[in-house]
Amino acid sequence: xxxxxxxxxxxxxxxxxxxxxxxxxxxxxxxxxxxxxxxxxxxxxxxxxxxxxxxxxxxxxxxxxxxxxxxxxxxxxxxxxxxxxxxxxxxxxxxxxxxxxxxxxxxxxxxxxxxxxxxxxxxxxxxxxxxxxxxxxxxxxxxxxxxxxxxxxxxxxxxxxxxxxxxxxxxxxxxxxxxxxxxxxxxxxxxxxxxxxxxxxxxxxxxxxxxxxxxxxxxxxxxxxxxxxxxxxxxxxxxxxxxxxxxxxxxxxxxxxxxxxxxxxxxxxxxxxxxxxxxxxxxxxxxxxxxxxxxxxxxxxxxxxxxxxxxxxxxxxxxxxxxxxxxxxxxxxxxxxxxxxxxxxxxxxxxxxxxxxxxxxxxxxxxxxxxxxxxxxxxxxxxx
Length: 384
Ligand code: COS
What we know:
Blueprint lengths: L6 H15 L1 H10 L4 H9 L18 H14 L1 H20 L2 H12 L5 E4 L15 E5 L2 E12 L6 E7 L8 E7 L5 E6 L10 E12 L3 E2 L5 H37 L1 E2 L2 E2 L4 H29 L5 H31 L5 H11 L6 H18 L5
Parallel strand pairs: 1-4
Antiparallel strand pairs: 2-3, 3-7, 4-5, 5-8, 6-7, 9-10
Helix pairs in contact: 1-4, 4-5, 4-7, 4-8, 5-6, 5-7, 7-8, 7-9, 7-10, 8-9, 9-10, 9-11
The structure holds coenzyme a persulfide.
């Protein structure tokens, strides 16, 4: 079990572990769209599934700075498994901060150990960026709620042990939404199509169907009507983890392209020595370093209890847009070789694309940032 205070030690240990366990299967799992829950358990045994969860509940109790540092290492080997770790972390951050003692005791130790898998179910066929327009309902019936609806693009759909489901308990809009814990084996829960994705192909993305799913009232997280804020808080944290994943992908692509450019010779010299290639690599490296600093800044502010939503959004925009640019350039540096599956750069390029979309599109991140700037300009309330 990793437990070192020093994030760099922890990151190095995680890097070796991931290279040894995820490295050999990353290509194959992408090619066959195969997810191996046993690898999540293996990561969990090392403490890597509950990095931000308090030690009292089996986590490492790291702040988000440590979490982001280690997640970058997982992502540099497999973005799919990094996203799995991030997603199984979402119910954990929600329960750590907002759950009851009973909810924490039931779910957190297993999730933090990687023995249980968590999922986050907000999006619906008609409700993506406009999350507050969701139509899945949770109707009170005696001591229970009965959930009815369908959730789309759910990571770990069909394999999760617990889903945090946002459903409507009241009027339209954000204040009518509540959050619920739904066990993976709840009667009435079923699973639709598994999406065939461009990237993150080792991570299962599945429709979750709730048809009369009955949960006790104590499965609700927070009060009725607080579910939208629960989801938004979780997404603020999640955006840091997606940003850290992007840094890992971009770093791996930069390192691979740089190595290639030192070995590949054309016109009698390594292609790195051509300024057109060398400058490309330099720009890629700049993007990686700048992204990481922004991710760490957002994480550091979160750890200090300072407002950080806008910085999480900035980190997500900068690092995922950078990862897209960097991986595209990595393919370019490798030329024909880069476009083929013999090298991982094409996989990283496909993986980077979805990071610009998940946990809120980068257009939504810009909306969050612009609103923050507006508040700051009007009354200083956005100042942080
Ligand atoms: N933390 C806590 N509460 C928040 C919050 C945050 N980061 N952001 C908003 N809220 C609260 C607001 O304070 C407001 O509460 P009150 O009504 O009590 O004032 C409420 O939530 C509604 O906020 P807002 O008016 O900003 O809601 P909008 O409908 O305009 O939506 C966006 C805001 C667009 C930012 C939100 O819908 C969003 O993030 N969409 C993207 C969804 C997403 O990321 N999906 C990915 C799913 S996982 S792949």
